[in-house]
Amino acid sequence: MLLLASLAAAGARAERPGISREPLPTADGTRATLYHYVPEPGLGPRPALLLLPEVGTTRRAYDFDRRGLARYLAWYGVEVFVLEYRGAGASDWPASFDFETLLENDCEAAFARALAGRASIFVGGWGLGGTLAGLLASRHSRQVAGFIGLQAAATLDLPNRPMAELVSRLERLPSMLDLRLASRRPLFEDRSWFEVMVANDEGLAAAPLRAMRLSLLAPLPRALIEDLLRFAREKRIVVGGEDVRESIARYRGRSLLVIAPRDNWIHPEFATPLVDSLGRERVEVLVLNPLEGARLEYGHLGMLLGSEAPRDVWAPILAFVKERR
Amino acid sequence: MSRARPTRRLRAALAVLALGLGAGCVLGRLYREPLPPEAELFDATTADGWRLGIIRYRPERPRGLPVLLCHGVFNNGRILDIDAEHSLARWLASRGRDTYLLNLRGTRYSDQPDPQAGRSLRYSADTYVLQDMPAAIEAIRRRTGAPKVDLVGHSMGGHLAYIYVAERPEDVNAVVTLGASAHFHGVGKIERESGRSIARLGTSLGPTVPAPEIAHVFAPLHGEIEGPIERVGRNAQNVSVTTWKRFMATGVDYCSRDVIAQLDLWISQNHMSSADGKVDYTARLRTVRAPVLVIAAKLDKIAPVASVKAGYELLGGPKEFFIAGEENGFRFDYAHGDLVMADRAKLEVWPEILRFFETHTPEGLEVAGGGQSAVAR
């Protein structure tokens, strides 16, 4: 009887975090989308966290097939907001936008909405979304309780031969590059771009990669691709005329940087410079390899959706958000 | 009676330990690979009187400049020549390169320290660069007539190659470094602390670190369990248990406490320098004009990709960088040792070394017969 009761309770609790979707008007009139994961009442003070996805992806890295960091954190009492940028999912699909547009419009609007009625919130992001989150943290330092960078890029480069060859062949960029189609192309033998560059670690060995690719990836407009290529050629990410390493260095609060050594998309060497930018003494660094206590070597997507991610990644993020300073 | 019990237990424990040591040493030696008949072992004598064992693999049809291979810390030249299937030296020779394996002082094929014979226990990485490498290159010059060599360095051997080419560019045509970092501040807790901990442990064990004995004691376990050494040194998908055991039995060697202390200094100050800290070797990378190919291993925990790439960024001449991993079409991601002992290294990594040297072979190179090569002047 007790067993039945506890099973029923567990089943009920799986539905507990309320999830709502709201259109997010931005400064230039385009609508992005904000997903709101609300924990059940009565779990004590609820810290709030705004999560930004990787550029060119939907919110699904944080919530795929009813599992993900957003639901996990909400389950444990964190109020989570997940932004879905313009050009992805339920947001408006304008003909063109660039990296700075995402920051000035979508991210700023999401931050203002998540902050409403609160003294401060946490901000976090994955890959180039982590870069955007770091920029938000530096701009709104007093309202940011902590910054979480999940392989947040401080620099970019053409990291490997396939990428270098691809770029050398991109004489005419398409007006819109559909990553869902482009990433399914075979790269090496029977492995696609998506499998080699993004979904390459053991934690995703049993994952439904096709479904992940289709629901996760979003089209990229030419202007944004040109930004990324420029960042890679110049080996620095410049937003608003300033290198993001310098901009993010102005954030003086707490930070958690999660580094995935096996990432073939945002290489660890693009992410680790943020440790020095933010100041080693103020940064908690979580390196996802077995020597540092992780169960496996993580790649770009595995750090969020891999089989061991709840223990190796989600739990330390929860601890960071819940820790009182 | 109550006093006797602990003594008896202690004796029993010591006996078990001695048995383990003995069994380990025997089992360890079972995996030691002898040099093959085609290997030529000769001595090069340094200016300060040490004899260094140089192993030569002579090609049937020589082409290009001689290649000198330099090993890393706690290793000897055999890490680059474990067995017929896992030998960068033999592989290069089979493709026409006159190939030489340097065994740095104090390792198995070279003189051991002997203060009474004037061979001090005190030598550092500076000594390797100032004494051992010039002696090896001079010996190769005498045998071949070639004014320069192509240089390959693995791990600390890559550091030595960096330092040497900056100090004596006239000796070196082109360089390949494998898993050699230029700065040492890892971002992970273990990365930050393990190097210094190992260094402190090493320097506390006496003037010479008895790495081969330690390796032999644990011989039965090597590769059978995924211990910390395995996790740091290899990716089990790339390096078989047998190869790993052979490496531990054949390629692990002694190291001077002063070398370890210098590496500790590099880690603490985050750049390569002379043992007294006065000369910044990392800064000198900017002066390097020789072509350099820098190869990093995706899963390298000793020389993480970021640290290796930092050295590449500093180099002042023609240079290439690539990562040994799935992203470049390799079957598996590589770890530190995999670069020289992976089953597929001869298919995936070593052809890059040969291609690079061939691309940067000086024009007008003429090759004499009988394994002699020379550059037309």
Describe this protein's structure:
The complex is a heterodimer of chains A (325) and B (377). In chain A, 38% of the residues lie in helices and 20% in strands. Chain A is an alpha/beta fold. Chain A has one domain: Alpha/Beta hydrolase fold, catalytic domain (Rossmann fold). In chain A, α4 links the parallel β5 and β6. In chain A, α3 crosses α4. The longest helix of chain A is centred in the N-terminal third of the chain and has 17 residues. The N terminus of chain A is likely disordered. Chain B has a single domain, classed as Rossmann fold, CATH 3.40.50.1820. In chain B, α1 packs across α6 and α3 crosses α4. The longest helix of chain B is centred in the first third of the chain and has 27 residues. The C terminus of chain B is likely disordered. At the A-B interface, loops of A face α5, α7 and α11 of B.
In what range is the share of β-strand residues of chain A?
Answer: 15-25%
CATH homologous superfamily title of chain A: Alpha/Beta hydrolase fold, catalytic domain
Query: How many DSSP E strands of chain B?
Result: 12
What ranges of chain B have pLDDT less than 50 throughout 5 or more consecutive residues?
Answer: 367-377
N-to-C series of helices and strands of chain B: HEEEHEHEHEHEHHHEHHEHEHHHEE
**End-to-end distance of chain B:** 85 Å
Q: Nearest-angstrom radius of gyration of chain A?
A: 19 Å
Strand order of the largest sheet of chain B: 1-2-4-3-5-6-9-10
Question: Which ranges of chain A are low-confidence, i.e. pLDDT below 50, for 5 or more consecutive residues?
Answer: 1-15
User: What's the mean pLDDT score of chain A?
Assistant: 91
How would you characterize the largest beta sheet of chain A? 8 strands, mixed
Report the top-level CATH class of chain B: Alpha Beta
CATH topology of chain B: Rossmann fold
Assembly context of the chains:
heterodimer
Tell me which protein chains meet in the greatest interface and how many residues each side has: A-B, 25 and 24 residues
Tell me about the biggest sheet of chain B?
A: 8 strands, mixed
